[in-house]
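Example S7 (structure tokens).
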């Protein structure tokens, strides 16, 4: 998994609202991610101040 590439895409998506949906994030990630990779990704998102939301309609 290339965490840097996923984070770059997440930053682009979240730059205006500070959030990214789970659907958007899932689309950026490979299907075979290991649990420790997922944990590292969530840690990196939090460190960047990017919030994860469940649905695009959610505010």
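Recovered sequence:
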């Amino acid at each position: 998994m290339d965490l840097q590439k996923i984070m770059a895409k997440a930053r682009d998506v979240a730059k205006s609202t500070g959030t990214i949906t789970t659907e958007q994030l899932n689309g950026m990630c490979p299907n075979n991610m290991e649990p420790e990779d997922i944990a590292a990704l969530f840690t990196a998102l939090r460190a960047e101040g990017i919030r994860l939301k469940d649905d695009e309609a959610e505010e």
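Notes on this example. The mean pLDDT is 90.
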